[in-house]
Design a protein that fits this description.
164 residues; mainly alpha; single chain
Length: 164
């Protein structure tokens, strides 16, 4: 619908902004909202999903048990990063104006998308589709929920970043 455009001020000049959202943007924002809500929940002391929120050793203990005191602030940081990714994706498609050059927005989305795809596909002991430790509760959640969502989010961010 080419007629559905709203003028928006961007860096001192009017520009046209599409009203509808593309499918990749809807996918990215849905995953970001889902993940950010969980991370905010954990940051504020929530326990829902806590037992499968960190990679586990074969004995079931968290891999990073020496860093558990940082777990809640880290969850808040991840939530903030996810919200920033959502804002960057909205800006890349012209739905909001950020005081950043388009090249910087698209570059950040490209790096984030590539990093997320690497997280899902690069073999490590605990994470991704090709992880070596597969018998823990975390590993099952990672295989069937986390890695597919991370791969889908990374792909959507790359499509958003590289289109024009």
């Amino acid at each position: 619908m080419p007629g559905n455009r709203v003028p928006v001020l961007h860096a001192g000049r009017a520009r046209r902004m599409p009203i509808g959202m593309s499918p990749p943007l809807l996918v990215a924002l849905s995953i970001i909202l889902f993940a950010a809500c969980f991370h905010l929940h954990w940051a504020m002391g929530g326990r829902l999903g806590y037992s499968v929120s960190l990679p586990q050793r074969p004995d079931g203990g968290p891999v990073m048990d020496h860093r558990l005191s940082w777990w809640r602030p880290a969850a808040a940081g991840v939530a903030a990063a996810l919200i920033l990714l959502g804002l960057l994706a909205l800006a890349a498609e012209g739905h909001i104006a950020l005081p950043l050059p388009s090249l910087m927005v698209r570059g950040a989305l490209t790096l984030a998308g590539a990093g997320l795809i690497a997280r899902a596909t690069v073999p490590t002991p605990w994470t991704g589709f090709f992880k070596r430790i597969r018998t823990t509760r975390w590993a099952r959640y990672d295989t069937f929920l986390y890695s597919p969502l991370i791969l889908l989010l990374g792909s959507a961010l790359l499509v958003i970043a590289l289109r024009r």
